[in-house]
Structure formats: C-alpha cells, structure tokens
Write a structure and sequence with these properties.
It contains 11 helices and 3 strands. With 302 residues, it is mainly alpha-helical.
C-alpha cells in the first residue's frame, strides 16, 4: 500500500514537472517583441464580462525614453531597492516577508522584486499559493537571463495596473493627469508609483491618506538617492565608489529629508551619460522635452 502511494506521488510529480516544462513561457521573444496582452489583463476582462460590463481596457505602449525619469526612479525606490543587484529574486526581502507573514498569521507581504511582479503580471495570477510562487521564481530567473534590466523595467512600466481598467505608464498618466507619461512631474510620478500595491483603492486622481503618505516617502527617497539608481539602471553597472563630494551631498539630503519635497528639489544634476551599447535619454532631460512626440490619441483600448 505504501509503495503504491509513493509511486503515485512520484508519477504525479513527474507529470506536473512535464506539464510545467511544456507550458513554460518563451520569455526570450520579449527581447524584441512587445507583449500583446497579459494574464492580469485577460483576468480583468473576464471579471468585467461576468459583471455584464464592457471589457475594454486603457493601454498604450511607449518606449522607455518616453516615460518620465521621475516615474522610472519612483517605481524603483517604491518597489525594488535592489533591482540592479539581484538576479530576479531578492532572497533577503522574501525572508523578511515570510517572517512578517508568519507573525501575522496570514499572507500580507510577498517580498517580490519588479522582475517577479512582471512574471506574475505577464503569465500568472494574483494567487499566492506555493506552486504559483515557485513558477513565478523560475520565470523571473528566465526573464533576468534573457532580458536586460532596462528592458525588464520598460515592459513592467508598460503593463502594470495603474487604476480601474488602466494599464501602463502612458494610459495611467493620461487617465489620472491628462498628460503623457513623458511629461509627468515628480509629484505625479510619486502618486503613480505609490498606488502600485493596490491601484483600485489608492486612486492617484483622488489620493487618500495612505497614498499621500506613500507619495511623501517616495519623494523623500528620490531626493536622497533616486538619481543614482536611475543611472545604474541605464548603464547596468554596480555603483561607483562614493566620493567625498557625494557623501557630503547625501548627508545634506538626509538632513533635509524631513522638509517638504518639491519638484524643484528633485531636478537631476547637470551631467551626461552614455552607454556603450545604446543611447537613451538621460536623467538630465526635463520631463517636458519638446522633442518627445505625444501620441495622437489619449489611449488605445484592448
């Protein structure tokens, strides 16, 4: 009896592994191709149809360079401090999340990196069961293997939910602020980045107290070290040794972190960066660059 049970378990495990292997997504094609939809978008469409509503969503793809540097930095400091250091999974963050969940007796924190969130958005579901998390882990590692950090962030910013029926930075900026993603101010970008944990509850158009608190936190972090993070994402290198000048600046910024933060405080330094493999708008550009072409229509529905 015991042998039969063990044999059954082994066969079931082998069957599951075979199924996972066969259905594993081809993430390598994302190097050149844009996703045409996501698992989360399709799930939302099904929910809307069950409610007897239209399943149209607001979604419009824009390139990395047409997304405000403020939003790129804001998302990094809000969602994944170690984005340019990990290989898809932040084991320290996952361990801390597990400890918090254990103490509370329920799952409230996932400890997911931006790469893991992208894997979940593109191919999986919001479920937090162990098998889904395991699949998320392997997809995240595959994304990191085939895509650059910059490409991962570009796709993430284009597919993440930013409000009711609203997906991606361009649609989110137009829906909430009536402007393109390239034109977002630091304050507006911090509201969009801050709503990510629950965009249907924390509405950037009408921010509640929780979202306002997250906005202040994100602006403070951006003021102190968001510029360095953006530079490292662009060049995909480890941070350079901190100079005396940088240390002095950081100390002043830390002291001023409690003061009100304005968009002017967050203007990037006057510097120029180049990449050996590609040229992208650098953080020295302002978010109202006249060369940025504004799409002819506000949104594209899917």
């Amino acid at each position: 009896m015991l042998k039969r049970f063990v044999l059954f378990v082994l066969l079931a495990l082998l069957g599951w592994l075979a199924w996972e292997w066969i259905t594993f997504p081809d993430v390598a094609k994302l190097v050149k191709e844009r996703p045409t939809t996501t698992a989360f978008m399709e799930q939302r469409k099904r929910e809307l149809r069950r409610q007897g509503k239209s399943d149209e969503l607001e979604w419009q793809w824009v390139s990395y360079g047409k997304i405000s540097p403020y939003l790129r930095r804001g998302v990094l400091v809000a969602e994944d401090n170690e984005f340019y250091e990990h290989q898809g999974v932040d084991t320290k963050a996952m361990r801390e999340a597990f400890e918090r969940n254990w103490k509370r007796g329920k799952i409230t924190h996932g400890g997911s990196t931006i790469t893991q969130q992208l894997a979940k958005n593109l191919y999986l579901s919001p479920s937090r069961n162990p098998l889904r998390k395991l699949r998320e882990y392997f997809i995240a590692r595959a994304l990191e293997k085939h895509l650059s950090k910059k490409r991962i962030l570009e796709i993430y910013l284009n597919v993440v939910e930013l409000g009711e029926r609203t997906y991606g930075a361009e649609a989110g900026a137009r829906h909430h602020f009536g402007k393109s993603a390239a034109s977002l101010s630091a304050s507006e970008a911090a509201l969009l980045a801050g709503c990510l944990p629950n965009p249907r509850v924390m509405n950037p158009s009408k921010p509640n107290r929780r979202l306002r608190g997250r906005q202040r936190m994100i602006l403070s972090r951006m003021k102190r070290w968001g510029y360095l993070f953006e530079r490292e994402v662009l060049t995909e290198k480890k941070p350079e040794p901190v100079t005396t000048t940088t240390e002095t600046t950081a100390t002043v910024s830390d002291t001023a972190a409690t003061a009100p933060v304005t968009d002017a405080d967050l203007m990037p330094e006057t510097t120029t960066e180049t990449s050996a493999t590609e040229v992208e708008p650098t953080p020295t550009e302002t978010t109202t660059d006249p060369t940025v072409e504004t799409p002819p229509s506000a949104t594209t529905t899917t």
